[in-house]
Amino acid sequence: MTSLSPALLQALHALLGDRFSTSVALREQHGRGEAHHAAALPAAVAFAETTAEVSEIVKLCASENIPVIAFGAGTSLEGHLSAVRGGVSIDLSRMSKITRVSAEDLDCTVEAGVTREQLNAYLRDSGLFFPIDPGANASLGGMAATRASGTNAVRYGTMRENVLGLTVVLPNGQIIKTGGRARKSSAGYDLTRLFVGSEGTLGIITEVTLRLYGIPETISAALCSFEDVQQAVASAIQIVQLGIPIARMELMDRGLIKAVNAYSGLNMKIEDTLAFEFHGSPAGVAEQVELVSAIVEENGGKDFEWANAPEERNRLWKARHNAFYAVVSQRPNAKGWSSDVCVPVSRLGDCILETRALLKDCTVPTAILGHVGDGNYHVVFAVDPNNAEELVEVAAINKKMVRHAISVGGTSTGEHGVGTGKIAYLREEHGDAVDLMSVIKRAVDPAGIMNPGKILP
Amino acid sequence: MTSLSPALLQALHALLGDRFSTSVALREQHGRGEAHHAAALPAAVAFAETTAEVSEIVKLCASENIPVIAFGAGTSLEGHLSAVRGGVSIDLSRMSKITRVSAEDLDCTVEAGVTREQLNAYLRDSGLFFPIDPGANASLGGMAATRASGTNAVRYGTMRENVLGLTVVLPNGQIIKTGGRARKSSAGYDLTRLFVGSEGTLGIITEVTLRLYGIPETISAALCSFEDVQQAVASAIQIVQLGIPIARMELMDRGLIKAVNAYSGLNMKIEDTLAFEFHGSPAGVAEQVELVSAIVEENGGKDFEWANAPEERNRLWKARHNAFYAVVSQRPNAKGWSSDVCVPVSRLGDCILETRALLKDCTVPTAILGHVGDGNYHVVFAVDPNNAEELVEVAAINKKMVRHAISVGGTSTGEHGVGTGKIAYLREEHGDAVDLMSVIKRAVDPAGIMNPGKILP
User: Of the residues A189, A338, B87, B413, which has the maximum number of CB atoms within 10 A of its CB?
Assistant: First the structure.
């Protein structure tokens, strides 16, 4: 790990004043995300307020080959924030301006530090919303950088589909804009989607242009419980295969329901459960509900419990968004370890069956949850980060899950990103295409200063 | 232009037998697309039948720094096929196997030479379809390479959204697979979308994995005519802004209707027209029709003329797909020149108004058509390719259209690609991001043998 030279320290202080700090508390806060990964502290933290400042910071660090790590809301689950080679954590949370909203074109531009909840609070009166919703209240820059998704992806897609353009600071400090405001374009390489999911390893995203959607005329949410998780999964698969435009379809196993009830003060039946949300016109929603009810009933699901009052619905989804924290809070001083495989929907049933078998003798608290409409599911493990045996045990289960997913055409990470946690699986999943990723990385960031040690071996 | 050495000629003959040719007729056929761009002949044409053969051809050419140009159906509109530095045209049309269709996962894998019509004919009995439909019966590899779209994009997206994975031969002959079959993934750089739209300049796409859709329960098509194109555009904008999930919404000005009637033996009213298609359940379609009717009426549209019998509907869309050929056929020995701007929908009205003013004194036959739901529209000019004055005149109009589109946040090409035709506008549209595209191009293809002279200056 390289330490910062006196000249660099002085230059960064001169640029940012007290927005540049080497305090241990700040460095500790910036050296990890929310999951089990060990922290690795940056040498300093720089709070940027503009794209131009990010560019200046990157230029200064580049001049001494010092790593830079973008920090948004700190909610990463795969070790993206570990400063494995030291360097400067560039905190973008103060870049929180919503620059432009166009109701006519259903798009907006925000600074990278704006969180998804902040954007939706701002939009509420306009009748618009932004659907992508990882559990955490993540920053939109961070969500773009990890190609995040969440509960609405089955209907609205992920960050891949919903980012129209970006402002990016490159490793040499150059500022570029990618994409544009047209809904489609064939004008050259798709740099937008190259940076979406690049986890700060090619550049730092400082502004994001996003698609927005009209709040549906009718929104209806329901819970349905099942004797067995397999019945729930079978229902979900049929719903997807029929092309029903369901907005949310979330699996919560009974372990999760128990944790969520305790954490969020709810009273859901402790059974394997699908939570649905339907968006559309009154007639459209009625039609979807009818189709889904029939499928669920055929698979042994019990009656729908409706949560249609907005506050009731919000409580349900807020509880679902807090699922990770709910599982972790079951155990004092635990950290969460979340698996994140995504498979073709036709293979979801056998994958979840295999996962359940893997969990049978697991010694730490676990819960299964998933965006089953996409074939994406998680096991959250509440681990003691200081217990090496537990970490080995969970790592082995996680590895088996990932290998099984890859063997059926799936992916090691549906929405959390590679970070440090999935590097070992990248070649298994992508073969020699990983070499091409490395070629691109070396070309764009020849000194290797952008979030080193992430994505690529 | 480098000529092929005797050793290379011999090696390619040994590999391919009579599937390798230097005949002038074949070279002429492979040195241009369907538009006005001047032909530039490759030195030879190689008909590949497998990915491994493409790899061998590329390796042999790479060993002597000879350019390679992928050729699918030959329907490019922006000069992608011009062998500006000679080299070998690799014809993929014999790679026409549909490798795999999964009705359960709504996806398929096809070889690059499969055309969109071939795929849909194959799928018909399965109840599935692939929606992306440029006018021409293009190959799916070519459509991926140009990031094509068509009339259904407003509902189903473009090739960007519908390609799940690719097999690609890199400039050194290495074969890689990008993406996968999971609906979403955060596992590393999005190489799939880097190749989608790269126009053969980074590698040759030999296989494509695509999303499929269930054929809607109800499909309903209608024409609506307007006194003035502005009323039609105003209607289209409102329909998009209301988020009505319309499947197709095509603008055809009266010039186009006249040309299409003559070319396809139809009898549409010669007025500015919107052609609609509605997909959904019976109730859903009825609801969409009601909303759209009200908007259209408010904007002075006349009654819908329905085309609901499948053969009638097919005739309508077939005529629409042949629009380019229809305009060109109005004039003996003409070639088509198609503009292709795409703008934020809120700016579509003023852009089309400006375009109409530009066309007022144009000396060649023209027609305006567009996928107005996306903000994408074309003027097709029927030009005499040997008349330099005409080419200058049309180039000037095209340039003004492009500059206006870029000035309002739009793009120089919505779906046809850059090829040779839009290179001059790339920096105006993307600024310094073009430098990053060049960095990537040089890293992936250091010798510059992949379709040289396209996309980048």
Answer: B413
